[in-house]
Amino acid sequence: MKILAFVFTLMSFSVMAQTSAENWKTLSGLEYEKTKDEYGEIFVPKFGPTIKALEGKEITLSGYIIPFEGMFEPDHLIVSSVPVASCFFCGGAGPESVAEIYLDEPVKYTAKKVTFTGKLTLNDSDVDQLMYILKEAKLESE
Predict the structure, then answer these.
(1) What is the distance between the alpha carbons of residues 61 and 122, in angstroms, rounded to a whole number?
(2) Which of the two residues, 15 and 137, has the higher pLDDT score?
(3) Sign of the CA dihedral with 119 first, then 53, 99, and 142 last
(4) Residue 101: which domain range?
(5) CA 99 to chain centre
(6) The CATH number of the domain where 106 resides is what?
(7) What is the pLDDT of residue 11?
(8) What b/e readout covers 70-104, taking b as 16+ CB neighbours within 10 angstroms?
C-alpha cells in the first residue's frame, strides 16, 4: 500500500509540474466526433485517460486572449494556444486549441501572450461552453 501511495503522489506531482507547452500538447491529443445541430457543426470530445488525468488539477496554460468584439469580459475570457490569426475561431486550429478562463480577479485585454493557472474542467455536453475550462484562474504573467 505504501508503494501505491508513493506512485500516486509522484503521478500527481508530475501533472502539477507540467509546463504550459506540455499541458497544451496533452490537451491537443483530444479525439472528437463532428456532428450537426440546427445551428451548424458541433465537435463532441472523446477525452482519453491522459486528458482525464488533468481534470480537477491545477494546470498552467499560456496563450493569446481572443478579442471577441463586445464579448470580452475581464473575468471570463477565451485563450488560444496559437496566435489569433491561426486560432480555432479565425484560422485553421482545432477546438482543442482554446480554453475558457474564469478568473478570480479581472484582467485587462492584451495582444501579448499571457499565462494563466487554474483548475481544469472538461466539458463534453454543454454546447454553450468550450471543451476545456479553467476555473478559479489567476493571471501569472503578461
Answers:
(1) 14
(2) 137
(3) positive
(4) 2-141
(5) 3
(6) 2.40.50.140
(7) 43
(8) eeeeeeebbbbbbeeeebbeeeebebbbbbbbbbe
Q: Band the pLDDT of 81: cuts 50, 70, 90.
A: confident
| Count of CA atoms in the C-beta half-sphere (13 A) of 120 | 23
Name the domain count of the chain. Answer: 1
Residue 53 above 80 pLDDT?
yes
